[in-house]
Design a protein that fits this description.
It contains 13 helices and 26 strands. It is of the alpha+beta class and about 500 residues long. A hairpin with a 2-residue loop joins strand 2 and strand 3. The protein is globular.
C-alpha cells in the first residue's frame, strides 16, 4: 500500500480449525478484513483446464465448464488470440489493470473466431462466483510472486502503477530486460509494488520459482482432461502475507501455532528480512478480542457510522450502486455553518474511505456530501478524498464534486464484500434486511461456549437454539459441536426452539 505517510501498520492473523481471519490496522484502527472459511475457500487465482460449453457472439462471451456448480464466464477481451498454442499476444497493459467491462476493439477477432464449443482451454479465475453469477475467468494466466507477476501467455513487461518515480521505473524495466523469462520469449513480467528498490537477485529468485510453477501447471494440463483444477492459489494467510506484509509494518501477530510456523517458513524462503516481525500470540483472550476487532467488525455491518465530532455517515448498498450520505448530526461547530460543514465533510471522507476498504465496497459509489458554498472548501475536501483513496490497493476512479455536492467513485472489486461474506438475507423481514449467516452464528456460538471452559460442573448441558442452527450443528457444522464437547468435557444435548431468534441461544446444565 502506498500513501500511508507516518501511519503505524499492524497485521493480525487469527486461525482455528474452521476459518482464518486477517485484520490490517492503521494507527490501531481496522481498515481491511479478510475471511476464509476452510470449507469455502475463494477461487480467484486458481487455474483450471476447462471445456467451452457455449459461445455467445451476441454478447462476445463464452461459458466454460471448469468443474464448478455454474459454468464460468469468459469475455472476448480475456481470450488470447490463440488459446491452444498460446502464441505471442501484444497488449497495452496487464490484464489485472483492466476495467470490469469487456472491450472488443475495432478489428479484434470475434469470440466465435477464437473459441468453439467442446474446446479445452487453460483458464484462471479472476472474480469469484456470486449467488446469481458464475466465476469470471481469463485465458491470460497471471502468477504472482513476492516481487514479480509472471504473465506466461503475454509478452509484456511493466511496472506497478503505484511506483511513481520515473527514474525507479526505468531502472526496474532495465532489470526486467536482464531476466531470462523463457526460451521462446512468449512470457512477460510485471514488477509488483513491493519490488520497488529491489535488485536483480531478488527478481531472479522470484522468477525461478514462478517459472517452475508454470511448467508444472503446463505438464499437468497435458495429462488430464477438462474440467480439472490445475493449480490452487495459496491459502488466505500466506496470500495476504505475500501481497501485503512490508517493512513498514511494525508487527504481524499470529494466533495459531501451525499457521505461525507456516508463515515463518514461507517468509524464510521469499523475504527472510521480515521473519523478525512475526510474533506468536499466546494470551488467554483471542487475538481479535485483545485488539477490539470483533466490535469493529460488528460496527462495519451497520448502516450508520458515527464520527468523532458527532456527525455521521449512512451507507446503503443497492443493486446498482452504493449510496453514502454525510450528515452533521450532533456536531454544531464553533464559528459558522460553512466551517461546520467543511469540518464534517473532511472528517467524513476519511471515515468513508476506511469503510469502503473495510467493507470492500465496489462498483459505483455515490457520496452525498453536505453542500458547501465556498469553492475553496470543495477543493479542500476533494483533495482530502483523493489522498485517502491513495491508501486503497483496489483500482479506483473519482469524479469532481458536482454542484449538488455529489462525488462519484468507481472501485474494482474481485471478491464478495464483507456484508455478503458474514450475513444472509433475513427470513424475518422477507429479505428486506440481513442477519448473520448460519456459519457465522455457529462460529460465534463456538466462541461463547469455549469461554465456559473450566466452569461446567455437569457432564451434560442443554443447548437451546433455533431449528436452523440445530440442523447445521448436526450436519455441515458438526465439527464445531464435536470440538466444543471435547474441549469442555461435556455431552451437549441440542433442543430446537422455533421461537428462538437465529442469533440467540441458551445453555442449561442438566
Amino acid at each position: 500500500m502506498t500513501g500511508r505517510g507516518t501511519l503505524t501498520c499492524k497485521m493480525l492473523i487469527e486461525s482455528d480449525p474452521h476459518q482464518t481471519r486477517i485484520a490490517v490496522l492503521e494507527d490501531d484502527r481496522l481498515t481491511e478484513i479478510f475471511v476464509e472459511r476452510h470449507r469455502h475457500r475463494g477461487l480467484v487465482g486458481n487455474v483450471y483446464k476447462g471445456r467451452v460449453t457455449r459461445v455467445l457472439p451476441g454478447m462476445q462471451a463464452a461459458f466454460v465448464d471448469v468443474g464448478l456448480e455454474r459454468d464460468a464466464f469468459l469475455y472476448v477481451s480475456d481470450v488470447a488470440s490463440d488459446v491452444e498454442s498460446m502464441d505471442e499476444l501484444e497488449i497495452e497493459e496487464p490484464r489485472s489493470d483492466r476495467g470490469e467491462e469487456p472491450a472488443n476493439h475495432h478489428g479484434a477477432p470475434s469470440i466465435d473466431e477464437l473459441l468453439k464449443a467442446g474446446q479445452e482451454i487453460i483458464v484462471q479465475v479472476v472474480k469469484d462466483p456470486l449467488p446469481s453469477k458464475g466465476a469470471r475467468i481469463s485465458t491470460h494466466v497471471t502468477l504472482p510472486g513476492r516481487y514479480l507477476v509472471l504473465l506466461p501467455t503475454v509478452k509484456h513487461f511493466g511496472v506497478s502503477r503505484r511506483i511513481e518515480d520515473e527514474t525507479e521505473r526505468e531502472r526496474l524495466l532495465g532489470l526486467l530486460g536482464q531476466l531470462p523469462v523463457n526460451s521462446s520469449g512468449n512470457s512477460g513480467l510485471i514488477v509488483r509494488t513491493v519490488g520497488e528498490n529491489k535488485g536483480i537477485e531478488e527478481f531472479e529468485s522470484d522468477l525461478n520459482y514462478l517459472s517452475k510453477l508454470w511448467e508444472k501447471i503446463r505438464q499437468r494440463a497435458g495429462k488430464v482432461s477438462a474440467p480439472t483444477l490445475l493449480h490452487q492459489d495459496l491459502d488466505l494467510a500466506l496470500r495476504v502475507v505475500r501481497d501485503l506484509l512490508r517493512s513498514d509494518y511494525s508487527v504481524l501477530w499470529v494466533d495459531g501455532e501451525e499457521t505461525y510456523e507456516r508463515i515463518v517458513e514461507f517468509l524464510d524462503q521469499v523475504q527472510p528480512g521480515l521473519v523478525g516481525k512475526v510474533k506468536l500470540f499466546r494470551q488467554e483472550a483471542t487475538l481479535f478480542e485483545q485488539f477490539g476487532i470483533e466490535e469493529q467488525i460488528e460496527a462495519a455491518l451497520k448502516s450508520k457510522v458515527w464520527l468523532k465530532s458527532g456527525g455521521y455517515i449512512v451507507i446503503n448498498p443497492t443493486e446498482a450502486l452504493v449510496a453514502i450520505d454525510v450528515n452533521t448530526g450532533r456536531f454544531v461547530g464553533q464559528s459558522n455553518l460553512e466551517d461546520t460543514v467543511l469540518q464534517t465533510n473532511l472528517e467524513a471522507v476519511q471515515e468513508i474511505v476506511r469503510q469502503i476498504r473495510l467493507r470492500d465496497l465496489g462498483g459505483i459509489i455515490v457520496i452525498d456530501l453536505i453542500d458547501m458554498i465556498e469553492h475553496e472548501h470543495r477543493e479542500q475536501v476533494f483533495t482530502a478524498l483523493e489522498g485517502e483513496l491513495r491508501k486503497d490497493r483496489a483500482k479506483t476512479k473519482v469524479l469532481n464534486i458536482s454542484e449538488f455536492g455529489l462525488v462519484e467513485v468507481t472501485r474494482k472489486r474481485s471478491r464478495a464484500n464483507l456484508e455478503r461474506l458474514l450475513t444472509q438475507p433475513c427470513p424475518y423481514c422477507s429479505g428486506r434486511g440481513r442477519i448473520k449467516s448460519i456459519a457465522t452464528i455457529c462460529l460465534n456460538l463456538r466462541k461463547e461456549l469455549l469461554h465456559l471452559r473450566g466452569r461446567m460442573g455437569q457432564s451434560e448441558i442443554l443447548l437451546r437454539v433455533n431449528p436452523e442452527i440445530s440442523r447445521a450443528l448436526q450436519q455441515e457444522e458438526r465439527a464445531i459441536l464435536t470440538e466444543v464437547e471435547r474441549s469442555l468435557g461435556v455431552h451437549i444435548l441440542l433442543q430446537s426452539d422455533p421461537e428462538m431468534h437465529h442469533e440467540r441461544f441458551d445453555v442449561v446444565e442438566v
